[in-house]
C-alpha cells in the first residue's frame, strides 16, 4: 500500500513485460519489477544490486514524493489523460554503453521523440511533485559544478532533465574495477545482441511506485498511448 509521506513515484519508460528485452533484463538483475518475483543472478550480487532496486527502466520523470494536496488517484488520472494524447513510435537502436563506472543501454543515435517525451513528462507531472526541502536541495547540489544542472535542481528538483537528460537503462551498479567493467560490458554486449535486434516500440508510460526508500520500485500502472 502506497504511503504518500514516505513513498515515491517515478515515471519511466519500460519495455512491455512480454518483450525479450524485459525478460532478459529481469533475469540479469534478479527481479521482475512487474511481478515482484526475484531470481538468482549469474553475476556477483553487488554488480546488479543498484539497478535491481529501481527496476529495469529509463527515467522520464525522476522519483518524487507526492505533494500533500495531491493524491495517487489524481496522479493516475492525469497520467491516463497524458497517455491518451500521445502516439507510439519506434525505439532507436540500443547499445551497451559505459556511463562513468556504470553500464547501461543507450541510444545508438539520439531520438528526438524520446527527448520530447521526457521533457513533456517532467513538465506535465511537476504539479504533483513535493518540492525539495532546503536540506534535500543542498544534498542534491553537492558535488555538482555544472551551472545548468544546478539550475535544474532549483527549478525541477533534479539535475538531469531537459537538455541535461540522457536516455539510459541501467544494467549495473558502479563497477570501479576496470577489468570487471570491461568483462561485464563485453558479456552484456554479446548476450544482448540477439535481443536488441528485435524491434521495440515506445507505446506507454509506466508509473513505478516505492513504498519506502528501503523497498524496491514496482510497476504501479502501464498507460498505453492512444495509437
Describe the structure in your own words.
The chain is of the alpha+beta class. The chain has one domain (8-110, 169-224): Cyclic Phosphodiesterase, Chain: A (Alpha-Beta Complex). It is 36% helix and 20% strand. The chain is built from seven helices and nine strands; from the N terminus they run E-H-H-E-H-E-E-E-H-H-H-E-H-E-E-E. The chain has helices at 20-29, 45-54, 72-83, 112-124, 134-141, 147-156, 178-196; strands at 8-13, 58-64, 89-90, 94-99, 102-107, 169-170, 201-202, 204-210, 218-224. The strands form three sheets. Strands 2-1-8-9 form a four-stranded antiparallel beta sheet, with helices on one face. It has a three-stranded antiparallel beta sheet with strand order 4-5-6, with helices on one face. It has a two-stranded antiparallel ribbon with strand order 3-7. The relative contact order is 0.25. The model has no long low-confidence stretch (mean pLDDT 96).
Summarize the structure.
Helix content is 36%, strand content 20%. With 227 residues, it is of the alpha+beta class. The strands form three sheets. Strands 2-1-8-9 form a four-stranded antiparallel β-sheet, with helices on one face. Strands 4-5-6 form a three-stranded antiparallel β-sheet, with helices on one face. The chain has a two-stranded antiparallel ribbon with strand order 3-7.
Amino acid at each position: 500500500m502506497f504511503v504518500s509521506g514516505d513513498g515515491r513515484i517515478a515515471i519511466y519508460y519500460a519495455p512491455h513485460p512480454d518483450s525479450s528485452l524485459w525478460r532478459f533484463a529481469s533475469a540479469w538483475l534478479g527481479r521482475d519489477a512487474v511481478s515482484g518475483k526475484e531470481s538468482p543472478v549469474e553475476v556477483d550480487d553487488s554488480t546488479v544490486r543498484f539497478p535491481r532496486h529501481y527496476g529495469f527502466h529509463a527515467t522520464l520523470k525522476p522519483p518524487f514524493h507526492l505533494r500533500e494536496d495531491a493524491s495517487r488517484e489524481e496522479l493516475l488520472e492525469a497520467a491516463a489523460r497524458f497517455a491518451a494524447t500521445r502516439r507510439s513510435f519506434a525505439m532507436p537502436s540500443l547499445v551497451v554503453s559505459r556511463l562513468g563506472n556504470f553500464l547501461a543501454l543507450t541510444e545508438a543515435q539520439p531520438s528526438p521523440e524520446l527527448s520530447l517525451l521526457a521533457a513533456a513528462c517532467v513538465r506535465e507531472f511537476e504539479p504533483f511533485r513535493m518540492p525539495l526541502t532546503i536540506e534535500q536541495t543542498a544534498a542534491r547540489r553537492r558535488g555538482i559544478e555544472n551551472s545548468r544542472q544546478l539550475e535544474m535542481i532549483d527549478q525541477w528538483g533534479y539535475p538531469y532533465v531537459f537538455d541535461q537528460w540522457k536516455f539510459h537503462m541501467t544494467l549495473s551498479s558502479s563497477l570501479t574495477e576496470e577489468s570487471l567493467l570491461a568483462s561485464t560490458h563485453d558479456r552484456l554486449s554479446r548476450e544482448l545482441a540477439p535481443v536488441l535486434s528485435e524491434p521495440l516500440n515506445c507505446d506507454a508510460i509506466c508509473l513505478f511506485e516505492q513504498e519506502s526508500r528501503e523497498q524496491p520500485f514496482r510497476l504501479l500502472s502501464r498507460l498505453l498511448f492512444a495509437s
